[in-house]
Design a protein that fits this description.
Elements (H helix, E strand, L loop, with lengths): L1 H8 L5 H9 L20 E4 L2 E3 L2 H11 L6 E5 L5 H7 L4 E6 L2 H13 L5 E5 L12 E6 L9 H5 L1 E11 L6 E8 L5 E9 L10
Parallel strand pairs: 3-4, 3-6, 4-5, 6-7
Antiparallel strand pairs: 1-2, 7-8, 8-9
Length: 205
Amino acid sequence: MRLIMELRGDGISDRRVLAAIERVRREEFVPDLFRKDAYDNRALPIGNGQTISQPSVVAFMTQALKLDTRMRVLEIGTGSGYQAAVLAKLCARVYTVERHRDLLREAQQIFEQQRIGNVTTRFGDGMKGWPEQAPFDRILVTAAADGVVPAALFEQLRPDGILVAPVGNAFGTQHIFRYSFDADGELIEERLWPVRFVPLVVGKS
C-alpha cells in the first residue's frame, strides 16, 4: 500500500495500472538477496549487468501505452519478467524478447509458477522485434536506444499503435518517448520523462 500511495504521488493516475502493480508480487522477480527491498521504489540488480526497473518507471511506461484488454503487446527486454507480468494483467497477450538466455529461463519459470499464461517468450535480438507475430497494438522497449529506435520495431506496429521506449546514450541524458502516427501516417514523438536504463544492444549472449 505504501508503494501504491507513492506511485499515485508520482502521477500514476490509471487505476488499472495501479491495480496491476498491486497484484504482481515483485519479490518473486528479484534475487533472494534483495527480496526485503522488493517494494522500495528503486531499481534492483538481477544479473548479467541488468536491473529490474523501479516500480514508478514500470507504472509510468505502462500508463503511457494506454492499454486495453484486447491488445497484443510486444516487449523488448524481458529481464526479470516483472514488466511483462504487469502488462499481462492489462492486455490480451504479451510477446517478450530477451537476449540473455539465463535471464529468460528464470523469467519463464516465474511465469509458470505464477500461472501467467498470456505471456509468450523468445530468445533473440530484440532490435529485430518479432516479425512473425506482427503487427502489434503496442510495443514497449525496456532498454535505452542510443539516438534512434530501430526501424524494424516501427514496421511491426499497427498504424494506430503506440510505441514507448527510453532513448539516449549510456553516459548522457535519457528520456522516455512515446511514438504514434497521425491520420496522414506521420510520426508523432512525445518526450515524457527522464530515466536511466541499460543500453539496447544487438545480438545474443
